[in-house]
Structures are given as structure tokens and as C-alpha cells.
Amino acid sequence: MIYLDNNATTVMAPEVRETVIHCFDEYFANSSSISHYEGIRANDYLEECRAVVAQLIDADVQHISFNSGASEANNTVIKAVADYYSSQGSVHIITSAIEHKCLLNVCQYLSRYGIDITYLPVDYLGKVCLTSLQAAIRPDTRLISIMAANNETGVLQPLDEISAIAHQHNILFHTDAAQWVGKLPFSVTRFRPDFVSISAHKFHGPKGIGALYCACPEMIRHSPLIHGGGQESGLRSGTVNLPGVAGMAKAAELFIASHQQRVASQQKMKQYFIDRLLTHIPDARINGCRQQSLPNTVNFSLPGIKASTLLKKLKMKVALSSASACHSAEQKPSHVLGAMGLDDAALQGAIRLSLSYTTEIAALDSALEQLISCAQRLRG
After folding, report:
1. How is 53-64 classified by DSSP, letter by letter?
2. What confidence tens digit (pLDDT) does each residue in 305-328 have?
3. Helix axis angle, 70-86 relative to 101-111, nearest 10°?
4. Which residues are catalytic?
5. Topology of domain 14-257, per CATH?
6. Which of 97-111, 194-208, 259-273, 319-333 is least confident?
7. Cα–Cα distance between 228 and 235 in angstroms, integer?
8. To which CATH superfamily is domain 2-10+258-379 assigned?
């Protein structure tokens, strides 16, 4: 099997696996149990790991709290901000039409309780319209939540400009950076967000662990998603998953040490894939902006071919996807590509390929040969 679905999840790096296993044995105590030596050791190790994850996004360590991943972080932020401001009057939140389903669904949920949501359009390249953002701002706008990089197309959103607009109007800014962090360098000093959501399994860490960068902790403490013992400075109750945190920190450390080589290698392979695909299937369409995009992601449509049919033919040989992993089983056209204005044929034929630093050129060549051969047979 050739695995090219790394935006869904990545294989855990061997160093990460070793770190997780070591933590289970060496730091087994509850990191909140600081009344004894083993608990103190576990807590010290937790803080060492927190410092590494903070370094990953150029953040102050006190602004990092651990959770189960970006879906939890997104829900935490959206619900907490809505609840915090509800007592002060109406609440308006701005997001985009191409967000991950976890964010769109929590916004839909809150709209049932009187929270007003604006969904910004995107252009044909998959980028948020800044003019529409400016026009959508109201006196009661409390939060702008725009993802950093799209999980289906890999398109990078203009975070510098979005952040500037938010700060200009004294509006909180949240970004779901699950697909960006660990694939490209990310700096909270540069982008100045109030909240950032991160998942470890998107960059070769363990599943079920993530982090929230939070510059406004009082809002989360006011309305935490999970009530309990007040772990993580009151932001996320529940015993901390220290082996998961250790694995996330190791994955972060590996990225920090090798990101330049990783990015360059993936950009080269991405361009190689696009060039070969268009050489053999000239009318293939690359969906989304090719310049401002993740180095590992290609979303393309093959005219006259349904992606579901092609993927069924290849599923035992090449791992690709036709939509986000969170709703690919539904076999529905992509809401992201639909928002970009793709016609029905392009929607039905859309496929996502996502590389990793572990992808080898020989494997990519083999996948290309199988993909092209299968597509040509299906087209007759």
C-alpha cells in the first residue's frame, strides 16, 4: 500500500513511538499529584513538553494547554467566546464557508441559541474574500475564526491580513491551524491570533492529543468545554494524557529540527506529481491556489471520471481521498470545492493527494503509474 493521505493522519514517527512508550513506563504518575515524588516528576516532564510545543509555534509557554486535538479546541473556543459575550448582548461570529466540519457544526449548533453566524465566501482559488470580511463586521462581532490551511485543497489563508483586520476592530481572532502546524513554520508572534488549534497526529505525533494556544484564558475559564478538576490552569479538566503530550512534543522537536528539508522535499515531489499528471492527462484540473498552499497537498479533478469509482479501483494499492476524512464515508461532494464554484463534474471527480516527508519518489512514481493507468481505462 502506498500511503498518500497524510492530511487525514500521519504515521507516528519511530522516535515518537519510543518516547510514548518510555513515558508510560517512566512517568506513569498523575501529573496533578504533586504531593509525592513521582507526581512531581511527571509534572516537571509535562512542563518540559509544554515548552517544546510552545516553541513549535513561537509562543509563550503559559499560553499552551493540552487537549484531545483541534476538534476539541475549536469547540472550546467558539462556545466559550459565545457564552462569555452573551450576557452583554447579541453575539456575532464570522467564519468561512470552507472550515472543517467540526467548526461549521458548532457554529450551526450555536445559531439555534441566538448566536448570529456569517459564513464568508471564498474565490475560485479557495481564498477568503477580505472585502467580504470587512463588510461583514458589525458592532457586535466578537470573533473571527478562519482556518490557516484548508484540509482538502491545502490553500493557505491570508492570516496576516485577517489578523490586521481583527485587531483594527478589536475583535478576537481564532485560527484552526491543524493542517499548517507541523507542515510549515507557524508563528503566533507574526500572526497575532488570540486562539490557535493544533492536532499532533497531523505531523507524525499520536492521535487523541492536541493543544490550544490561548491568549485570553479568562474567557475559556469562564465557560470551559469540560468541567472538572481544573487541570491545565482551569482551561481543560481531566487527567492530562502525558504519554500523548510527550509524543506530541517529540513530533514537534523533530519538525523544528528538520522543517527546511521536509518542506523542500515535499514541494519538489508535489511539483513532480503535478507535472507528470498534466503530461499524461492534460485536461486534469488542479483545484485551489498553487502558489499559496501547503507543500504536501494536491487537489485535482479528472474530467469524465468519478472519484469514488477511481478510488474503489485503487483502494488496496494507493491511499488517496476524495474529501475530508471526517465525512468521506458520507460520499457527499466537498463543501469546500462547492464554495469555490466547481461544477458538478469537477466536484464528482475531485481527489486529494497529501504527501509526507516519509514519502519516497519511487512510491510516488508507482502511485502515479497506477492512477494514470486506471484513469485512462475508465475513460476508455
Report:
1. HHHHTT--GGGE
2. 999 999 999 999 999 998 655 555
3. 20
4. 326
5. Aspartate Aminotransferase; domain 2 (3.40.640)
6. 319-333
7. 10
8. Aspartate Aminotransferase, domain 1 (3.90.1150.10)
